[in-house]
Every structure is written in C-alpha cells, then in structure tokens.
Amino acid sequence: MMKKIFFTIALLSTAFLAVATGATVNQSTTYIHTTLHIVNGTADAGPVIKAYLSVKDALASDNAAAAAQSGNALLAALGQLEKEATAAKAKEAFDKDGQAALKSAQAIGKSGDIKAQRKAFKDLSEHLYSLIKVVGTSETLYLDYCPMAKASWLSDKKPIVNPYYGSSMLTCGSVKETIEP
Q: What was the pLDDT predicted at 101?
C-alpha cells in the first residue's frame, strides 16, 4: 500500500513539475513525458521484450508474415515468463495482463491479415506495458503513442516507428514515457 501511495505522489509530483516547467504541446494536446525506474525484476522479461519488438518491427514494415512468426515466438516467450513469475506480484500481474497478452500474441500468430494483427497488437501493447511495469526490464524502453490510432506501443528506440500505420504514417506519434531498468 505504501508503494502505491509513494508511486502516486511521485507521479503527481512529476506531472506537476512537467506542467510547471512547460509540457510539450502537440496538436492542442498536452503530453507529459515521464521516466519510470523499474526495480521489481522478479522474472526475466528479456525474451518477451525481444519477441514483442520483433512483432512491432514487422507491423511497422507492413509484413504480416513476419508479424505472425514473431507473434508465435512471443507466445512461447510469454509461456516461459509465466513459469518464471514466482513472486506474488508477478504472478498476480501475469494472471491479469499476461493472460491477455497471451491471447493477443496468439491472435497475431494465427492471422495473416495485417489489420487484424494491428488490432491485436493494440491490446497486446496495453497489457505488456502493465506486465513490464511489474516484472521490470533490463533495457530502456519507450512508451510511444499514436494519436491517429489512439494507441500506445513499446519501443527500444527513441525515434518513432509506428506499427499501427506502417509505411503510410511511419513517424506518426510521440514518446510518452521512458521506462528505465
């Protein structure tokens, strides 16, 4: 409970400071860039992140076949993470967000339709982000947001490469958050 209170106070303080110092304004919408330091590493999420980033890259390249292959690799990596998640918080997070991420990864792996894969990727990204906040990461990740798709995704690179629109709007979006190891 104290961690939640501390996190809420820290997040509100960060938001207040960002607003007080002038947040970035883009198309009449204010985006506040925050940095989170994740220290709860209870299982190795590295293979999950690597497979997820492969799905993202395939979608950004408009390659449905590669997205399906990477979706299947992600499904296997999530299954392994589920076995490794032994701490109570990690198990709880996996029961909620990991199971949903498994379903989305399976949908991407089974589909050859890039529109369906992108729809599943939206759900996948939301749940994987929540899961990573609990189990942690060994590398810096960026939470990017596309206002056109009204969706976020994780990236290991700061420059925007949009998986929701691929080559038609490859650089649409902005970094909303930095997630540190």
A: 96
Give CA–CA dist 120/107, Å, rounded: 6
Rounded to 5 degrees, φ, ψ at 139 are -135, 155
CA 171, CA 89: separation in Å to the nearest integer?
Answer: 36
| Verdict on whether the full-model pTM lies above 0.90 | no
- The per-residue pLDDT for 159 is 97
Q: Residue 156 burial by CB count (10 A; 0-12/13-18/19+): exposed, middle or buried?
A: middle
- The β-bridge relationship of strands 34-37 and 174-180 is parallel
Contact 88, 129 (CB under 8 A): no
Amino acid at 48: V
User: How does DSSP classify residue 95?
Assistant: I
Give CB contacts under 8 A, 24+ apart, made by 16-20. none
Residue 83: count of CB within 10 angstroms of its CB = 9
Q: Which residue has the tokens 């080559």?
A: 167
